[in-house]
Amino acid sequence: MATAVPEIRLRDLTVCHARRPAVHHLTGRFAPGSLTAVVGPNGAGKTTLLRAIAGLHRPEEGRVELPREARIGLLPQQAALDRRFPIACLDVVMFGLWPAVGPFRRVPRALRERASEALAAVGLAGFEARPVGSLSAGQFQRALFARLLLEDAPIILLDEPFNAVDARTAADLLRVVRRWHGEGRTVIAVLHDLDLVRREFPETLLLAREPIAWGPTGEALSAANRLRARMMAEAWAEEAGACTRGDAVAA
Ligand SMILES: Nc1ncnc2c1ncn2[C@@H]1O[C@H](COP(=O)(O)OP(=O)(O)OP(=O)(O)O)[C@@H](O)[C@H]1O
C-alpha cells in the first residue's frame, strides 16, 4: 500500500433518518492502522455510522473529519445488494477500479490481470466469467472482498462481513482482514459475534445510537456496558408503541 493512512475523527456526530437520530453525539477517533469492531443491538446505528464515514450519509450535526482525498473501501451488507443484474464476477471486482480508471473507460489488460489475481487470492480462481447471480452467498462475499483487495484503500469499512457465509469462508475472509491490519490499513467492521470480536479485534465501539463504550475490546464489552446497550435498545422498542390490552383481546 503506497498511500499514508489518515486518522478518522468523529466530532459530536449525529446522523438521522427522517429526522430521528440513528447515531447520536458520537465523538472519538479511529487511529491510523487500528482494527475496530462496531457492535450493538439491531437498529443501534452501526450501518448508518459506516455510511456516514464513507460520505454516503450527511450528518445532521457534528462531523466526520477525514482528508478530502482519503480513499475508503466499503463492503455493504449483502442484503443491501441486488444480484439479479447480469454481470460477470470479474466485472464486479473491477468496479473497485473505477475511481482510478474513470467510468466507462476500457480497463487496461494489466488491471484486468490484477482483478483476476484478486479473485484467486480469495479462492475464486477461474470464476472470472461466472454471472454473479449464480454465486452462493459465500462466493459472492469472496468476490466483494476481491473488489476491496483491488481498490487497495487505506481505510476499509466492512458491514457484517461474515454474515451468511460458512465457517471456512469466514476463516478465509478473516485472514484477509488480518492481512489488511498487518499492512497498516484502518479496518472498521460491524459485527454481531462477540466471541469473534474478543478474539480478533483489539478495539471496539459499542453503540446503541448513543456511544456506550469505545476502547480496548475487553473493557468496552464489559457486562455493565452490554447491559446498558440492551436497556437502550429496549427503550427504542417501547418508543415504537407498546401493545395495548385492547390489541391483546383482539388477537
Ligand atoms: N433508510 C432509512 N430510512 C428510515 N430509517 C432508517 C433507514 N435506515 C436505517 N433506519 C433506521 O435507523 C436506525 C439505525 O439503523 P442501522 O441500519 O444503522 O442500524 P444497525 O445497527 O446497522 O442495525 P442491524 O444490526 O439490524 O443491521 C434503525 O432504527 C433503522 O430502522
UniProtKB/TrEMBL annotation:
<dbReference type="GO" id="GO:0005524">
    <property type="term" value="F:ATP binding"/>
</dbReference>
<dbReference type="InterPro" id="IPR003439">
    <property type="entry name" value="ABC_transporter-like_ATP-bd"/>
</dbReference>
<keyword id="KW-0547">Nucleotide-binding</keyword>
<keyword id="KW-0813">Transport</keyword>
<keyword id="KW-0862">Zinc</keyword>
<dbReference type="GO" id="GO:0006829">
    <property type="term" value="P:zinc ion transport"/>
</dbReference>
<feature type="domain" description="ABC transporter">
    <location>
        <begin position="8"/>
        <end position="234"/>
    </location>
</feature>
<dbReference type="InterPro" id="IPR017871">
    <property type="entry name" value="ABC_transporter-like_CS"/>
</dbReference>
<dbReference type="InterPro" id="IPR050153">
    <property type="entry name" value="Metal_Ion_Import_ABC"/>
</dbReference>
<dbReference type="InterPro" id="IPR003593">
    <property type="entry name" value="AAA+_ATPase"/>
</dbReference>
<dbReference type="Pfam" id="PF00005">
    <property type="entry name" value="ABC_tran"/>
</dbReference>
<comment type="similarity">
    <text>Belongs to the ABC transporter superfamily.</text>
</comment>
<keyword id="KW-0067">ATP-binding</keyword>
<keyword id="KW-0864">Zinc transport</keyword>
<dbReference type="GO" id="GO:0016887">
    <property type="term" value="F:ATP hydrolysis activity"/>
</dbReference>
<protein>
    <submittedName>
        <fullName>ABC transporter</fullName>
    </submittedName>
</protein>
<keyword id="KW-0406">Ion transport</keyword>
<dbReference type="InterPro" id="IPR027417">
    <property type="entry name" value="P-loop_NTPase"/>
</dbReference>
